[in-house]
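Form 7-S
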Amino acid sequence: MKSILNIIKGITFSVTVLAAVSSCMIRKEYQRPEQVVDEKLYRTDMLPSDSTNIANVSWKQIFTDPILQGHISKALDNNLDIRIALQNIASAEAYLKQSKAAYQPTLSVGPNYTFQTQSINTQFGQIIGARRYVNQYDITANIAWEADIWGRLKSQERAQLAAYLSTVAAHKAVKSDLVADIASSYYQLLTYDAQKRIITETIALRERNLETTKALKIAGTLTEVAVQQSEALVFNAKSMLIDIDTQINLLENSMSLLMGEPSRSIERSTLESQQLPIDVKLGYPAQLLANRPDVMRAEYNLINTFELTNAAKAQFYPTLRLTGSGGVQSVDIDHLFSVNSLFANVVGGLAQPILNRRAIRTNYDVSLANQETAYLNFRKAVLNAGKEVSDAIRVFSVQDSFIELKQKELNAYKNSVEYSQELVNYGMANYLEVLNASVNSLNAELNIANAQYNKMSAGVELYQALGGGWK
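Output:
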């Protein structure tokens, strides 16, 4: 008995050493491609770089409006895409647990009953000479175990771990997108409110101008043409008011959907009360890999395909499997649990694939192609991240200058309206000049509201582009 135990220990030790050495020879360790990350990944021509990054700041410190914070919190709790992403994580976690259990032997136990009778017309039946009936009862346990000599199971486990982490990154990406969408939509609503107020004030002003025009016509200073043109401006402004109300309603419906609620009116503050504390400190391009969920997900997908390639390569080598079964077996149920009913067998086999209809080679070739595709997608994700950062930096950095110029333009148009109206009153100018100045003044005022929104929207995009929003 002692010699048998020594033999088993020797075999186990040899298999363990062989597996460790062989798996190191076959398996390759993943290393991040160095050429993916470039120190000049995004354009920082006009901005200083810093080791910090606004993406590391919680969204609550970026979006300080308490009403907006409430909307974001509700969306993170109720959004259906968030809940779907959580279910994907749960599914991937289950597969990861399964891959970890692959190292353990499989064990099954169960009772069986067999009824058997031989044909009399066979050679064995002719010898017996009569039909016989056999009842057999058994309780059998089966066990099987595969030695991970070439690291195939280890590669599959790491592939599942990467797949799990990819779903976690996907969840972070959904959160980041959701926070940015809610904030951007909220600021757009505030912009619509500001533009609605401007249009409402313009309608009142144009109606007063219409009355003035009618009085000047009666006095003989202006003609009916000027009256009709003034009335057309009133109708134009009223149609713009209908359009802005429609845009507000549609955007409220979209925000309600993001928050997982039926369409309703959205509570909000004012555009003038908003402050977006964005201090542009970019950090180094490598931080994009640590902060942007889409980049993280792309790299985890690359790791997954890399490890699956290792697993596919290991299939070219022999597989060592140990199987065994044992239990009790008897043709008489009364003696089933007798010592004489015990049986057992153990089988160890080393199988080397030779002809397998090219299935192993095909699997390996496909895994290599998938790995290259994942690498290209990873590089594409990094380049796209750099582009989005560059775009957001440009838009965000020029908005203050743009708004200042638009404000000067508005002031000039307002003065033009006043001067031209005064000249018309004295019969020294054409009323068409008043109309043009009025239209230009309204457009300039609406453009200022849009420019203020563009600045906040660019701040949101920069925060998201650097990987913020999910923390």
